[in-house]
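wait is this the right file?? whatever heres the structure
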């Protein structure tokens, strides 16, 4: 959970500290979990050396992710067992710094799903796929929004189009095909003139996730 929640901030931190980016492959590889203890130390040293880094809660979140990863390795001298409970609180504290509803929405839905769904706790791939799906959903709502309704209408207005864009992304299709999918929705389903240039920009955002 810690690594997935931490990755929600990747688009919001201009220069992710190497000490944190190096944590991701450790979390992703069960055989490397014991290395998380040293990675925690590296993150702590970075925090102490950069007292003005903002938001501090992001660094504390990374520390906590390293701790629970090391604990999962069952190596000697584990960190305190309740560290996982701090993940949601630290994540939301870090999100407050950015004042971004999209980020808060992603974090809230991801945290709730981890709490309710056992398979996300056991499968990093399933958790990452879910996060990808939510990011595409956010792009269609906040960035695409062909009708111009994301300030007033219900949040689910474009959600029926998310699976199609998600499947195209997972299949490794190019931005032209994703743009064509979006343009078809605009012209055929919504009866609009459509905007290919904007659809290409949105498709590129999806490709770059």
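ok assuming it is, sequence goes like this
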């Amino acid at each position: 959970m810690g690594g997935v929640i931490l990755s929600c901030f990747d688009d919001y931190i201009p220069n992710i500290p190497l000490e944190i980016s190096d944590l991701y492959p450790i979390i992703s590889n069960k055989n490397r979990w014991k290395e998380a203890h040293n990675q925690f130390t590296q993150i702590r040293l970075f925090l102490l050396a950069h007292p003005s880094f903002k938001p501090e809660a992001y660094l504390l979140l990374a520390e906590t992710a390293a701790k629970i990863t090391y604990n999962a390795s069952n190596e000697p001298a584990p960190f305190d067992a309740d560290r996982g409970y701090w993940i949601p609180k630290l994540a939301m504290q870090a999100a407050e710094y950015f004042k971004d509803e999209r980020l808060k929405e992603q974090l809230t839905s991801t945290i709730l799903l981890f709490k309710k769904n056992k398979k996300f706790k056991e499968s990093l791939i399933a958790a990452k796929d879910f996060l990808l799906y939510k990011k595409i959903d956010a792009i269609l709502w906040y960035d695409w929004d062909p009708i111009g309704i994301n300030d007033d209408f219900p949040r689910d207005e474009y959600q029926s189009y998310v699976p199609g864009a998600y499947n195209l992304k997972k299949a490794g299709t190019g931005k032209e095909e994703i743009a064509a999918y979006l343009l078809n929705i605009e012209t055929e389903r919504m009866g609009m003139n459509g905007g290919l240039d904007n659809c290409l920009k949105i498709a590129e955002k999806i490709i770059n996730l």
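The mean pLDDT is 89. so i think its the right one actually
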